[in-house]
Design brief:
This protein has about 350 residues and is of the alpha/beta class. The chain is about 35% helix and about 20% strand. The strands form 3 sheets. It has a 5-stranded mixed beta sheet, sandwiched between helices.
Length: about 350
């Protein structure tokens, strides 16, 4: 596990400064905040908030970020209190809730329609969906990438038993594809970008667009991936002011990132923080990320689609209504218009 500490942020301040137009809340109970982190652009709001000092303005004296090699490890760290906020795709928290792990969803960080891509070596000659039977696909099982593969199988009427998937973390999937041990990867950015840059390969499907020869360019949604704000139920119950302050900061940052006038600054801050090429992130920023914490019917539809996939694959039983593990209170107090459907969970 890699841990990065983002310096000591200067003192506390009046929470009303967090949002110029937002409501004032009390000082957070926890001043040292730990965030579960990743390498991809959905973490732009978190990074903007850190780099612009908005967490410090909200009364947090320290913000640390922790990156995990597997979602299961991050989930364990969340429940153990080692991190306070986790921002995974929507599949892991749905799976956790259905398996009795007490987590709650506080909002959508971003809708990631095209975050994940199926990239295949050109010498594998994958032209049509049935050609997938002839290759091995590297992906991280238990992630939203597995759900996207399930979406491809379902939409094109493929035989799931003939699809060969290999459980690999993103760096290993890239290396395996480069050595031709596997011929494809299905993973989120920036790994597809790297595969396309380093290996003679092509995208054959994104989360919403087909590049198979028979329906090239056709809109085919096979992904319901959302990047979620997730916390442990215990943390939310014990630290209401911390949760409110944290969400105030993140909603402010989402609005900043979503404003196209701030694109260059966002990419610069993100790239510097992650030590990544600006040129890469400039290209990836056009992947249809929608930074908006709104709770609406589309939120329910995406969550239900992932739940249905998990149920069909035997990983969960007795699908729970999504609003039972959704807490809309903090978002609603920031901006009531962001809550079109009300969560049933409460501290």
């Amino acid at each position: 596990m890699l841990t990065r500490t983002i310096g000591r942020l200067a003192g506390s301040a009046v929470i009303a400064l967090v949002l110029a137009s937002g409501p004032a809340v009390a000082e957070p109970e926890i001043k040292e905040l730990a965030l579960g982190f990743g390498l991809d652009l959905p973490f732009a709001p978190h990074i903007v908030a850190i780099e612009k000092g908005w967490f410090a303005d909200a009364g947090f004296t320290d913000v640390s970020t922790k990156t995990f090699t597997a979602g299961a490890l991050a989930g364990e760290a969340l429940v153990a209190g080692e991190i306070h906020l986790w921002t995974p795709g929507n599949l892991p928290p749905i799976s956790m809730v259905h398996n009795g792990i007490p987590v709650v969803i506080l909002g959508t960080n971003s809708v990631n329609t095209d975050l994940e891509k199926l990239v295949v070596r050109n010498d594998a000659n994958v032209k049509e969906p049935e050609d997938l039977y002839n290759i091995k696909i590297g992906l991280l099982q238990g992630s939203t990438s597995g759900a996207m593969l399930g979406g491809i199988i379902e939409h094109y009427g493929l035989d799931a038993s003939r699809i060969q998937s290999v459980n690999l973390a993103p760096p290993e999937a890239l290396a395996s594809m480069a050595s031709n041990e596997t011929q494809a990867l299905l993973i989120w950015e920036p790994w597809p970008f790297r595969a396309l840059s380093e290996i003679d390969s092509s995208v054959v499907h994104s989360g919403r667009t087909s590049f198979f020869e028979s329906n090239k360019g056709e809109t085919v949604q096979v992904s319901n991936n959302r990047s979620m704000f997730v916390a442990s139920q215990e943390f939310v119950r014990d630290n209401p002011q911390t949760v409110q302050a944290m969400m105030e900061v993140l909603v402010r940052a989402q609005k900043f990132v979503a404003d196209t006038a701030n694109r260059a600054e966002v990419i610069e801050l993100f790239s510097k923080f992650q030590n990544q090429p600006v040129e890469m992130n400039d290209a990836l920023f056009d992947n249809n990320y929608v930074f908006n914490p709104v709770f609406d019917d589309a939120y329910i539809a995406d969550m239900e689609a992932i739940s249905a996939f998990l149920a069909s694959s035997g990983r969960i039983n007795d699908e729970m209504p999504v609003l039972e593990y959704t807490y809309t209170g903090p978002i609603g107090s920031i901006d009531a218009s962001l809550v079109e459907v009300t969560g049933a969970w409460a501290p």
